[in-house]
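pasting for the record
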Amino acid sequence: MMRIRRNALITLQALVEGYPVVAVTGPRQSGKTTLVQAAFPDRPYANLEDLEIREHATSDPKGFLASFPDGAVLDEVQRAPDLFSELQVRVDAERRPGLFVLTGSQQFNLLAGVTQSLAGRIALVPLLPFSLGELTRDRHAPERLEDLLWRGLYPPVHDRRLNPRIWYGNYVQTYLERDLRQLIAIRDLSNFQRFLRMCAARSGQLLNLSGLANDCGVTHNTARAWISVLEASYLVHLLRPHHANLGKRLVKTPKLYFTDPGLAAWLLGIENCDQVATHAQRGALFETWLVSDLLKARFNSGLASNLFFWRSRSGLEIDVLAERGTRLVAAEAKSGQTLAGDFFGPLEKWCALAGKTESSSWLVYGGTKEQQRRQIHVLSWKDISALERAVAD
């Protein structure tokens, strides 16, 4: 089985030098356990999914932690919430950096424990599936854009070369439904499955909770709760509108994005990469991939998201706007393989409005050539490293 190196590894190893506890969060199967074991191969390891280990940690949290005098990696730690208070006592008493490394797949439960007990003592590293750069570095990146959008970037699909149709189907059934049922009361599973598919069809669009609720036959409050859980589970990301003082914003509503295009493609019923080429959601899947890859650039560096979208009163929209202090980085996603003149319209208008406040403008498209068009950097989807540096470095 292939092991693809993760960009977050260096960040994780640096953080344990300054924090007594570091937590790696992220969706199921994003590679959290593999990452922490690669970063700290000599540390003791305990998986709280194991019933015997969890019983020990739950019934005697103090004794459980005492069995690791030099610290440990604690996997899926949200399964034993009583550990958080004992972790606080332990790290406050010893005041040693890098004592414990935690992982967790449920942000609600994990962050509840962190907020109550470990605030100021812990560094968080969200780990999403592979970035394209990680696959490219290990010579495992798809040659075709359609293949990338269909396969997605979850590690098992690439490490084990699994069939995406089969893997994503099992993923939804075995992980998502199980985890989400632990967080929310789902009376009718078919309604929730329909909700997931409706969300996939709206990836890259403004979040319309009322429309989602009506289409799925649930209440507005239920739709809002389900979106919150999907966001907390790192399956979707809500991109907020930017408050740039360049005319009043058209909307205050966030845009909905899946954090992996392959999962969205499976939920859309796309069965192979050739179907992506002519699918009505091709552009939305491409935009979904770009937003997720830029998020990964931030998270892998230990940084929070600085990504927004922007829309003016007149309807001018920029797909991604990244804040870099007082400067802004604007990016547009176009899935077409051939550059067209109308690709540049929004960015050219943005440049005219933003003037000197704007640091750079980027167009990422589905072709292979890179070039400079006036103030706009044109990048192939195969190499967006320069844009990632502009957003995260």
